[in-house]
Specification:
With 1039 residues, this protein is mainly alpha-helical. The chain folds into six domains: 232 residues, no CATH class; 109 residues, no CATH class; 136 residues, no CATH class; 177 residues, no CATH class; 111 residues, Serine Threonine Protein Phosphatase 5, Tetratricopeptide repeat (Alpha Horseshoe); 82 residues. It contains 50 helices and three strands.
C-alpha cells in the first residue's frame, strides 16, 4: 500500500529533476571550446526545465503555485527557454519549499499543543538536503555571482571550472537586468532563511555570496560606478524595459531601503567568526593562494571602507580579539591552535592586523581605549594552549600600539601596567598604612611585563623595554629579596632585568649597576626604591613601608649582580663595572680616612668588603679587565697606596685596603707580558710607597707579598720567569732600574732576587688565596701559622738558603741535590699534596685540595684508598666549613668514596647523620647519602635496613628542612629498592608519609611526602599493582 507523498517531497522531486543530469561535455575542437560549452549548457538547462514542468503536471498543489509566476512550457523544440527561465523556476520552487516546510512546522506545533507531547519540527532528510544544496548552487551561480560588481566577493573563476560560460550569459545584460536578477534571487534566499530547516544549509554554503549581494545593494554607489571598481558604468537607457535613468535610480534606492533591515538581520544570523573572515576577504586581506591562479581583483574603495568599519566594530565587541585570532589561524594558516603549533610570526601578523586596522570612523586614541579592556583580559588568561596564544597576541598588540602611537599606548596601557612599580618608587602618601602594594597587584604587574617584554620574541619588545629602565632599581631590589626565599616570581623578575641590561647601552647598564651597588646614586637615571618587600601568602611578594636594615644581606645582592653580568657575557660591561668598583672604593677610602669611626663609614666599609670578596671569587678574568684600563687602574692604586702610607696602622680597614691593593697589583703582574714600557714606568711610581709599607709595622705575610711585588716591578718580571741568570743580566744592563728596588745599605739586589726566586711562587699563591674577608677575620695566631707554613713549604722543597760566605764541594752538592729530589718525590705525591692543601686554613687552597681529592678518588688512586680513614676524617671536618668552595667538593668526594667503599663509609655517614645536631651538617650528609644511593642503585639492598631506619628517624626531627631532607632521601631509596622493601618497612613508610601529608604544618614537608609516594610508584613502574595491591586504595583516597 503506497503512501501519499508530502508536499515537501513533491517539491524536492521537482527540484531534483530540474538540477539533475546537467553535464558539460568537453568538445574536440579546442578553438570552439567556450561556444560549444555554452550551447551544450543551455541545451541541458532547457531540457530540464521542460522535464520539470512535465513533473509538475502530476502535482496539482505545486502546479497551482508555480503557474502564478511562470508560464509552463513543454515543447521539445522550444528555443525561448534559457537560463533565466531555469533560474526563475528554481527560485519559485525554493519559495514553495520554504512555505511547505513552514506549514509542516506550524501543524506540528498545533499537534504538540493538543497532545502536550513534543513533536519534531519539519526537517529534511539527507537526499532532500542534497537536492536543496544543489538547487541553491544553481540559484547563486546564475542569479548572484555573475551580476556582482568587479572586486566584490570571490570571483567565479576561483570557484567554478567553466565560470566564463556563466559570465557570458550576463555579459549582454543591462545594469537594470543585472540588478533585478540579484534582487529577486537575494529576496528568495533571505525568505528561505526564515525556515529553520533551510537556514543552516544556506548560511554554511552561501553565506558569503548573500553577504556580498547585500553589501552591493545597500552600499554600492548608485549614480556612477567607475570602470576600475565595477563592470558597469552609468545606468543605461537601452535595456529591454525602456526604463529611464531616474526610474532605475529610484528603483535602486527603494531596494536599498528594503534590503537594509535584512542586512542587519543577516549579520546577526551569521557566525561571528565566519563574518570576520568574510570581512577580511572583502577588504582584500591577502591569504594563501596558488601562484598559478589569476590574481583576485582589488576590492572597491567603498567596500573596503564599510567592511573595515564592520570589522572594527566586531573587534571592539566582547571576545572580539579572540574570535579574530581563532578564525585567522584556522582558515588562513591551517594552524593547530589547540596544541599551540603556531608560528610566532603568524601571531604577530594577527596583532598587526588588529593594531593597524584603518579605523576610519573612530580616532586611534578611542580605538586603543576601547580595546584596552580586552587586551588586559587576554593578558591575564591562564590554562590552555589557546590561552597562551591569546596572551602572546595581547602582548604583541601592546607593542604594536607603542610603535604606532606611543602617547596613546602609554595613556591606556603602560600607566596601568606600571602602576604598582610607580607606587614602589614614590614616597608613600599614607605612612599609617603598612602595605603599599598588594600581593595580587605586584604579581599581576610582573607577569604582564614578563609576557610583553621578556617572553615575547617580537623585535619590538627589545625596542620598547627601555620603558622599564627607570624602574630597574625597583626590579633589582625585588629580585635580591626573592633570592632569599622561594617564589614563582623569581625567574620572571630575573628575565626582565636580563632583558633590560641586554638591550641597554653599556653606559645605561653601568649606571643601573652603580645604582644597585652603591648608595651614592643620585644621578643614575633610575627611580630609587622607596619601599621594602616581604613574602606574600600566595607565593608572591608585598611592598610595605621602607624598613632600614643595619646590615642587609649584601652578599646575596653582590653575588646576584655578578651572576647577572656573567649571563650577559658582555666583556666591556664587566671591565667597566670592575673599574667602577675600584673608583668607588678609592673615593670611599679618601673620604672616610679622617672619620673612620663614623657608623655610616663602618657600614659602607663592610659592604665594600663584601663586594670585593665577591669580585675576588668571580669566574671572570679580572686581570684582563684591569689590563684594558691599565693606566687608570694604576692611578687609582697609587692614590690608595699614598693614602694608606699616611694612615695609622691601627686604623679601621687599614690592612683590608692594603690587601685589596696588593691583590690588584698581583693580577696586573700576572699579565706582565702585556705591559708596555709606559705601564712599567707607571708601576714604578708605586715603589716608594711599597718600600715605605714594607718597613712599617704590618703583618709578615703582607711584607713578603710587598717584597715580591717590588722585585717583580723592579725587574720587569724577569725574576719570576727567567731565573737568576737573566736577573744578573738585568742588573748589569739596567743598574738604574735595579737600584730603585732597595737602598744600597740593604743586601745586594742579586741576593734579594735569589731569595725572591725561591719564594715568589708561594707569595703569589698566598695573595690569591687570601680575600679581604679572610684577612679581616684573621688574628695574630693565624698570621704566625701562615708564616710558619711558608717556611715549612720552603724547606720541604729542598731550596737551600743563599750564603755567600760558605761553599760546598760539587760532589756533595750533587748528592744532597739528588737526595733532596728523591725525598721531594716521595713526600710530594699527589695524595700528600692534596691532603696538605685540604688541611690548610686558607679557603681557596683548601678548596683546590678537596677538588684534587675528588679527582684522585675518581681515578681510584691506590695511595688515596689505602689512607681512606684519614681521607674520611678530613672530608667530615670539611663539611663543617660554611664556604661553598670547601663543602661542595667535600660532599662530592665523600659520595665517591662511599660508592667505592660502601661498607666502610655508609655506616659512618649514617651514624653521623643521626647523631649530629647541627642542621647544616645534617643537610650536607643527607646530600652525600642521596648521591651514594643514586650511584649504588640496585646494590643498595644490602644496606636497606640501616638506610630506611636512619631516614625514618630523620623525619621525626623538629626542623622542617631536616624532615624534608629525610623524606627526599627516603623517596630516592624507595625508588632504588623497588620490590626489596618488605611489608613491615612498606607499611611504616606509608603510614609516616601519609601522616606528614595530612598533619605537617610545613608546605615543603608535605610536598616531599607526595614526592616519596611518586618515587615509590616510579620505582615499581608497571608492577605497581603487584607491590602496592593492598595500599593503593589508601594512597588514592589520601591524595
Amino acid at each position: 500500500m503506497s503512501t501519499e507523498e508530502s508536499k515537501v517531497q513533491k517539491i524536492c522531486n521537482c527540484l531534483y529533476i530540474l538540477t539533475n543530469d546537467i553535464k558539460i561535455a568537453e568538445p574536440v575542437d579546442a578553438s570552439r571550446l567556450n561556444e560549444n560549452i555554452k550551447d551544450a549548457f543551455t541545451h541541458e538547462l532547457r531540457r530540464n526545465v521542460h522535464r520539470t514542468f512535465q513533473k509538475i503536471e502530476n502535482y496539482s498543489d505545486v502546479k497551482t503555485f508555480v503557474t502564478e509566476y511562470i508560464q509552463p512550457c513543454f515543447g521539445d523544440k522550444c528555443t525561448t527557454c534559457d537560463y533565466l527561465k531555469f533560474l526563475q523556476l528554481c527560485l519559485v520552487l525554493l519559495r514553495l519549499l520554504k512555505i511547505a516546510l513552514t506549514e509542516e512546522s506550524e501543524l506540528g506545533s498545533k499537534k504538540s499543543d493538543a497532545s502536550k507531547l513534543p513533536i519534531p519540527k519539519a526537517l529534511l532528510n539527507m537526499s532532500q538536503k542534497n537536492v536543496l544544496q544543489k538547487s541553491l548552487q544553481f540559484a547563486v551561480a546564475l542569479g548572484i555571482l555573475p551580476n556582482l560588481l568587479r572586486g566584490i566577493g570571490i570571483p567565479l573563476s576561483k570557484r567554478l571550472k567553466h565560470a566564463i560560460i556563466l559570465e557570458r550569459f550576463t555579459s549582454e545584460s543591462t545594469l537594470y537586468q543585472k540588478h533585478i536578477q540579484i534582487a529577486v534571487c537575494l529576496d528568495t534566499l533571505i525568505g528561505c532563511l526564515e525556515c529553520e530547516a533551510m537556514q543552516s544549509t544556506i548560511l554554511s554554503c552561501h553565506g558569503t555570496d548573500i553577504l556580498a549581494a547585500l553589501l552591493q545593494l545597500c552600499h554600492a554607489p548608485i549614480k556612477k560606478i567607475e570602470k576600475t571598481e565595477g563592470s558597469s558604468t552609468e545606468p543605461s537607457q537601452t535595456d529591454n524595459s525602456n526604463h529611464s535613468e531616474a526610474q532605475i535610480i529610484n528603483m535602486m534606492l527603494a531596494h536599498r531601503k528594503y534590503f537594509a533591515p535584512h542586512l542587519e538581520t543577516f549579520l546577526k544570523q551569521i557566525c561571528p567568526s565566519l563574518l570576520m573572515w568574510e570581512l577580511l576577504l572583502f577588504q582584500g586581506i591577502p591569504i594563501k593562494i596558488d601562484e598559478s591562479e589569476a590574481a583576485i581583483a582589488k576590492s572597491p574603495l567603498w567596500l573596503r571602507k564599510i567592511c573595515n568599519q564592520m570589522l572594527t566594530d566586531m573587534i571592539l565587541q566582547n571576545q572580539g580579539i579572540a574570535d579574530l585570532v581563532q578564525v585567522v589561524l584556522d582558515k588562513a594558516y591551517d594552524a593547530d591552535i589547540r596544541t599551540g603549533k603556531v608560528d610566532s610570526s603568524r601571531i604577530e601578523a594577527v596583532a598587526r592586523l588588529i593594531t593597524y586596522n584603518p579605523v576610519r570612523h573612530i580616532s586611534v586614541g578611542d580605538y586603543i581605549q576601547r580595546l584596552s579592556k580586552q587586551v588586559f583580559q587576554l593578558l591575564h588568561l591562564k590554562g590552555s594552549q589557546m590561552d597562551g596564544l591569546l596572551k602572546y597576541v595581547a602582548s604583541c598588540i601592546v607593542l604594536q600600539f607603542c610603535e604606532r602611537d606611543i602617547k596613546s599606548a602609554e595613556q591606556h596601557f603602560l600607566v596601568k601596567l606600571l602602576k604598582p612599580l610607580w607606587s614602589c618608587v614614590r614616597q608613600p602618601t599614607n605612612s599609617q598604612v603598612n602595605v603599599v602594594v598588594k600581593e595580587i597587584e605586584l604579581t599581576t604587574c610582573i607577569e604582564d611585563l614578563h609576557q610583553i617584554f621578556a617572553f615575547s620574541s617580537n623585535l619590538l619588545s627589545r625596542k620598547y623595554i627601555k620603558l622599564l629602565f627607570p624602574f630597574s632599581h625597583c626590579l633589582c631590589n625585588m629580585f635580591f629579596f626573592l633570592l632569599r626565599g622561594k617564589s614563582f616570581l623569581k625567574s620572571k623578575v630575573k628575565n626582565l632585568i636580563n632583558a633590560i641590561l641586554r638591550n641597554a647601552t653599556d653606559e645605561e647598564a653601568l649606571s643601573l649597576l652603580h645604582a644597585v651597588s652603591f648608595s651614592n646614586n643620585k644621578h643614575c637615571g633610575v627611580y630609587i626604591t622607596k619601599v621594602s618587600f616581604v613574602n606574600g601568602e600566595e607565593g608572591g611578594i608585598v611592598a610595605v613601608q621602607k624598613v632600614e636594615e643595619d646590615f642587609p644581606d649584601e652578599i646575596v645582592r653582590y653575588h646576584a649582580i655578578l651572576d647577572l653580568l656573567s649571563e650577559l657575557q658582555n666583556k666591556n660591561l664587566n671591565r667597566s663595572y670592575i673599574l667602577l668598583v675600584l673608583k668607588e672604593f678609592c673615593t670611599f677610602h679618601l673620604e672616610s680616612k679622617d672619620n673612620v669611626m663614623d657608623p655610616e663609614n663602618i657600614k659602607a666599609g663592610i659592604l665594600f668588603n663584601a663586594l670585593l670578596q665577591e669580585l675576588s671569587e668571580w669566574n671572570v678574568d679580572i686581570g684582563e679587565a684591569l689590563m684594558s684600563n691599565i693606566s687608570e687602574v694604576i692611578d687609582i692604586l697609587m692614590t690608595l697606596l699614598e693614602s694608606i702610607c699616611n694612615c695609622r696602622t691601627d686604623a679601621t680597614f687599614y690592612e683590608k685596603t692594603l690587601w685589596v691593593v696588593l691583590m690588584i697589583l698581583n693580577s696586573i703582574l700576572e699579565s706582565d707580558d702585556q705591559l708596555t714600557p709606559a705601564d712599567w714606568s707607571s708601576l714604578k711610581k708605586c715603589l716608594p710607597s711599597l718600600k715605605k709599607l714594607q718597613k712599617s709595622d704590618i703583618d709578615s705575610d703582607l711584607k713578603e707579598i710587598i717584597f715580591s711585588i717590588i722585585i717583580h716591578i723592579a725587574t720587569h718580571g724577569a725574576a719570576c720567569k727567567n731565573g737568576i741568570e737573566i736577573v744578573k743580566d738585568f742588573v748589569t744592563n739596567f743598574p738604574d732600574h735595579a737600584s730603585v728596588a732597595l737602598k744600597p745599605s740593604e743586601q745586594s739586589l742579586l741576593d734579594l732576587v735569589e731569595k725572591f726566586d725561591r719564594e715568589c711562587n708561594l707569595s703569589a699563591q698566598s695573595i690569591k688565596s687570601k680575600p679581604p674577608s679572610c684577612i679581616a677575620s684573621s688574628n695574630e695566631s693565624c698570621s704566625k701559622a701562615s708564616s710558619s707554613s711558608v717556611k715549612r713549604t720552603q724547606s720541604e722543597k729542598g731550596v737551600p738558603k743563599h750564603n755567600t760566605n760558605s761553599s760546598k764541594k760539587s760532589s756533595d752538592s750533587a748528592k744532597i741535590s739528588k737526595l733532596d729530589e728523591s725525598a721531594s718525590k716521595k713526600k710530594d705525591s699527589p695524595y700528600m699534596l692534596a691532603m696538605r692543601d685540604a688541611r690548610t686554613s686558607l679557603v681557596h687552597i683548601k678548596g683546590n685540595g678537596l677538588i684534587s681529592l675528588v679527582n684522585l678518588l675518581k681515578e681510584k688512586d691506590e695511595e688515596t684508598l689505602q689512607n681512606k680513614k684519614e681521607v674520611l676524617k678530613t672530608l667530615r671536618k670539611s663539611l663543617e666549613d660554611e664556604d661553598s668552595h670547601v663543602y661542595i667538593p667535600a660532599i662530592q668526594a665523600l659520595s665517591i668514596l662511599g660508592a667505592i667503599e660502601p661498607d666502610f663509609v655508609l655506616p659512618y655517614v649514617l651514624n653521623q647523620y643521626q647523631a649530629s645536631e647541627e642542621k647544616h651538617i645534617v643537610l650536607k650528609l643527607g646530600e652525600v647519602l642521596l648521591k651514594i644511593c643514586n650511584t649504588l642503585g640496585d646494590s643498595l639492598s644490602k644496606y636497606k635496613d640501616i638506610l630506611l631506619h636512619a631516614y625514618l628517624v630523620g623525619t621525626k626531627r623538629d626542623d622542617p628542612q631536616i624532615r624534608s631532607s629525610s623524606l627526599s632521601n627516603l623517596g630516592q631509596a624507595c625508588m632504588c629498592l623497588k620490590f626489596q622493601i618488605s611489608n613491615h618497612w612498606l607499611q611504616e613508610i606509608l603510614n609516616s608519609v601519609l601522616t606528614f601529608l595530612k598533619t605537617d604544618p610545613d608546605l615543603e614537608v608535605r610536598r616531599c611526602a607526595v614526592m616519596v609516594i611518586y618515587l615509590l610508584l616510579k620505582g615499581l613502574d608497571k608492577d605497581v599493582l603487584t607491590g602496592l595491591d593492598n595500599e593503593m586504595k589508601t594512597i588514592y583516597s589520601q591524595l
